[in-house]
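REQUEST FORM: STRUCTURE PREDICTION
Request ID: SP-0412
Submitted by: Lab K.M.
Chain count: 1
Length (residues): 495
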Amino acid sequence: MRVPVRFLPLSASAAALALLTGCFSATGSGDAGAEGGRIRVAMMQPPRSGLSPLSDDAFKLSRWSTAETLVKLDAQGDARPALATGWTRSGRSWTFTIRDGVTFHDGSKLTAEAVVRSLTRAATASPKPRILDGVDLTARADGNRVVVTTAVEDPLVPQRLSSPQLSILAAKAYRGKTVDPVGAGTGPFELTEVDGTSSASLDRYDDYWGGRAEAPGIDVTFVPDGTARAAALRSGEADIVEAVPVSQAALLDEDLITEVPMPRTNTLYLNTAKGAFRDPALRAAAREAIDAESIVKGVYEGRADVAEGLLGPALPWAAELREPVSRAKAGRPAGRTITLGTFTDRAELPEVAAALQQQLQKAGFRVKLDVREYAAIESDALAGEFDAFLLSRATVLDSGDPAAYLYSDFASDGSFNISQLADASVDKALRKAGETPTGDDRRAAVVAAEAAVLATDAAVPMLHERVIQGDAADVVGAAHDPRERELVTAATHLG
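STATUS: Completed
RESULT:
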């Protein structure tokens, strides 16, 4: 059943908008919203770690085009030059040539020593940035080159170095106990001011190595309330709004919103080690019982994509390589009782779980729901306490490569193996995917590993999420990035 959407009363919406208006008016140089003026951005989540690049706040620095990395990723997820112009590999070591003519926002020059300083700070941080979890990495300067060495051979080193968590900053950023990115990046916009968790300001950096930015600056306001963010776009108080809620999208002009496929899949994990779903035929029965299309239409109001596999449209090459998978024939549930777990932290999941309960009961299962906050349910899910577990799972981690996700979730020794899967053919396919060098061969190996997992019915992918971004009518060149690494670029401006 579709739960009715409840909107804020008019007075509450007006109050939120008034607060937001005050925030935007307090920042910038006064030409916000004018033709060729500063770009006003309403972002969902405020900084959690003072905009330290060693945290998830790094993605904000990347989306504002203020901090840059040695490498960037193209649409296929392949590594391309950024602050490094090229690289070579020899066993466990990779040598990166540093771009000439780059300056930090404080006027100091980008050198190999500066790169080593940033990478070493990240590699020795406690805790390490997520992209270096389990990776032992060292860096040393060699003239205008940097040699990066890992404890074991790692074909993903260039992709890892594309993570915003490994941004290269000036020496001034590292003078305190925490990393301070203000005035320390290399991008087309200089971060000039941060007002706690309320706002941030950036000015165009005219000496940017890639050419002068189109816009004179960016004024950012952090607006956790989705209704207020959408209201800011409707009223013209914001030029770019990230993460417009599904419930608000219908109230906006369709020309102002863009739905961006996310590398995130809603998947039903089935416990292969014990209970009803130890039987492959009953796993097949559960798969056949699920009507993902009705969930997309009912819960997500059509703003999601029905899954054909674990990897969705944010990775377009997966669909191009995917072939039909042979699966077990469905058996008869015969009233078997199963417990389905999920969590409340993502608003749609309890509603999806209720829809799944009805669909599975119609097929002959008896279904009990267990819905809690994620922090209270994760340990039970990983311990195999549920027959089925509904999860919204990111399929591409910080390296831009899905092999790590597949291994974590479906290898016999995977750290996030909710399905309790232990299958020799799956393990073999996952190892091959992880060891294959990047490029077409690795993509083919990843899709083969996905097929091996799907053949077991240990996981039933249902839908791929989208994020809804709002751009005012006069915004030109805003980025719509599935990996959420870009938002305002040097080419973005108000027309």
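NOTES: The longest helix spans residues 440-456.
Reviewed by: T.R.
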